[in-house]
User: What shape does this take?
Amino acid sequence: MRRLPRAALTAAILAIGMLATACSSSGGQQASHSPSSSTASGSSAPPAVRAAISKAYAALFGTKSSLTQSVNSLQHGQKFKSEIVAESKKPAAKGSGAKVTAVTMRSPDVAKVTFTIYSKGSPALPNASGFAVRENGTWKVAAQTFCQLLTLQGNAPSACKDPKITALPH
Assistant: This one.
């Protein structure tokens, strides 16, 4: 993984937690979706899947979400609740959001996602790559993606070392 400037990392990780404060007046970016082309590793996701994944990324990284929405939008979200709350209390978390720009299916329950995290309307982590997983019929941000962002900042909790939590479904 490439090393990112500390400010970008901080903004990216702070975006993760901002949702818990339910800062609905902060005006964070809303996630959206756009068509993506087929690749050798998968095919473009159907519009409904892209919309559901965009909604999950918006809930996890957006300032207009409640703590419950944020936790529910993350795979194994309850395991990361304290990290979400802690990150939400940091000043750079206000005005953050995420925009999904591409979704490629890897399997019926796993999608590769390209997204940008914004801080105060400016890209803090552009064209990041991550995953979404479908659990019980609901698309969520993969715990693996969340842990990669926390690791970049140096704040990965012990749950990130547990392959039962971070593994992508087959």
Remarks:
- The longest helix spans residues 47-61.
- Strands lie at 43-44, 96-107, 110-119, 122-135, 138-141.
- The mean pLDDT is 79.
- The radius of gyration is 14 Å.
